[in-house]
Amino acid sequence: MIDAEAVYAVWLREFKVYLREKERVISSFVSPILWLIVFGSGLGASVSLHGVSYQVFIYPGVLSMALLFTSVFYGIYIIWDRKLDFLKEVLVAPVSRSSIFVGKMLGGCTDAMMQSLILLVLGVLIGIPLTPATFIYSLLILFLTSVAMVSLGLVLGSNLTNQEAFNLVINFVIWPLFFFSGALFDVTTLPPWLSTITYLNPLTYGVDLLRGAILNVQVFPTYLDFSVLIVFSLVMMWLGTVSFGRMQQSK
Amino acid sequence: MIITTNDLTKKFGNFTAVDKLNIEIEEGEVFGLLGPNGAGKTTTISMLCTILKPTSGSAKVNGFDVSAQPSKVRSSIGIVFQEPSVDDLLTGRENLEIHAMLYKIPREVRKRRIGEVISLVGLEDRADDVTRVYSGGMRRRLELARGLMHHPKVLFLDEPTLGLDPQTREHIWDYIKKLSKEEEMTMVLTTHYMEEADMLCNRIAIMDAGKIVVLDNSTNLKKKVGGDIVVLKMDNPNLEKIRKLSFVTSAESKDGSVQIVIKDVDRNLQKLLCKVGRIKSVEVRPVTLNDVFIHYTGKEIRGGEEEGSYWDRIMRSEVNR
Ligand SMILES: Nc1ncnc2c1ncn2[C@@H]1O[C@H](COP(=O)(O)OP(=O)(O)O)[C@@H](O)[C@H]1O
Ligand SMILES: [Mg+2]
């Protein structure tokens, strides 16, 4: 079903385009840096959580936020791809829809991982306590989270047809995923109704793992975090392949 | 028959874009779908190349059903889309390399094949530039090269010269003619330029409002109009009288002149001129496909500038990103 060469072809195209779209590369790490500086140092200067300064505490959250935005946006962009562009050329090619989906998905993960890499290096520079081992472990967690989030974006994008839908997704999917993920606060101190919402959010588990890896502050058991992310990713990949199979040219 | 359709239909909501289409296309022919904007040409091609699902009816391409065996159909075809579809941040060669991987062209022959199609469309000098800096005609040539590099059984060309300047258009025509001669590939092309259909196609299906109005080769289509065209410039023509003449097929007045279809113009022109009275000028011209279109639909195929030039469409696609 999955044809490695087709996956590679689709991925290669995405990667080359990514490297050549300089604005995209630059903007994808400028905004999280601003977040970290403004939010972390200004607002939370005197606050400390779990024995670390707020800036350090939200660092994994900001990493996750950057990843979330890059990943889901990348996915929904196929609303435009479907009208013109390379996607039509790929859809008429004799390759399985799952290969196209996986190639596209890995393309998005690559964007997200480039960004994560830069932000992790930056983290080391601003004094986040990262060892080589936790650095690599964090990358692994971020990769898994991006698989989940890019797939979600692609599922949404391949089922939507217009710009209005795009705005709806930003307001009703991306922002809630971010706010109810524990990226900015400690999920254990929330009122029960709110914590229930965060427990339903797959991103919560990615943030939890990352905070565990970087700050040693983790709410759920590691196996649970991983299971949720993996199951969610598999479901999204399955839905995505089905959606790609049904996808038609749109005007 | 390499392509057959059986009541192929596509509806968008209540609107029927393609209405019970039945066509048969023979292997090796260049088949034209000629019709005005909105006739349903692109919709037809999209169904034949499996990126749009028919609402009802069926179609077979190279013996495979477009709904039941889409991947078999996909490996039999190549397509040049109406809208620009090369990746403008990749070079011409990179676009072709990715295509080669998607179509599983064996690694050993890939380089050679890419070189062949690049020189076929005359892009040797520019193959390693990103296509963003290509002219509209160069992009079209690259798309042509890409569409045929995997040697498809059928090549679809959707408005191959839409929005290109006349000189570039003739270039593309030359490539298409060369291809149909050298590669013995079946080609299905859509166009709303009559001269394009006339020049390139063995058989032409005239399409209007989702239906095939008439289908034949260019010579026979023109015969169906029933004669040659005589245009008379004159005041107050008596159309009734002209139409009653035995050798006149039809007569219409149009801004200060009368357009008459007349049988056997060599013998009958003299007679006609005797009967109509004072005229200011006379012009005799052969029937064009435009006349055929008017004959069958009562309207003209208008120029396609409403759809914008190739550049407008590229700009639009970039703004849409
Ligand atoms: N995805 C779509 N949704 C709604 N209407 C469509 C869609 N695609 C095409 N149409 C309509 O179907 C008709 C035929 O379109 P098309 O096949 O593009 O015509 P042509 O290629 O002959 O110019 C047009 O009226 C067009 O507006
Ligand atoms: Mg069209």
From TrEMBL, chain A:
Keywords annotated in UniProt: Membrane, Transmembrane, Transmembrane helix
Locations listed in the record: Membrane
Pfam families: ABC2_membrane
Start and end residues of each ABC transmembrane type-2 domain: 23-247
One cellular-component annotation, GO: ATP-binding cassette (ABC) transporter complex
UniProt keyword Transmembrane helix present: yes
Principal cellular location given in the protein's record: membrane
TM region positions: 25-45, 57-80, 101-128, 134-156, 168-185, 226-245
Entry membrane topology: Multi-pass membrane protein
Alphabetized GO MF terms: ABC-type transporter activity
Protein name: ABC-type multidrug transport system, permease component
Organism the protein comes from: Fermentimicrarchaeum limneticum
Automatic annotation (TrEMBL), chain B:
An example Gene Ontology molecular-function term: ATP binding
Classification via InterPro entries: AAA+_ATPase, ABC_transporter-like_ATP-bd, ABC_transporter-like_CS, DrrA, DrrA1/2-like_C, P-loop_NTPase
Pfam family of the protein (one): DrrA1-3_C
Entry keyword set: ATP-binding, Cell membrane, Membrane, Nucleotide-binding, Translocase, Transport
Membrane association type: Peripheral membrane protein
GO BP annotations listed: daunorubicin transport; doxorubicin transport
Keyword Secreted in record: no
GO cellular component, one term: plasma membrane
Family: Belongs to the ABC transporter superfamily. Drug exporter-1 (DrugE1) (TC 3.A.1.105) family.
NCBIfam families, per database record: drrA (TIGR01188)
Stated name of the protein: ABC-type multidrug transport system, ATPase component
Source organism per UniProt: Fermentimicrarchaeum limneticum
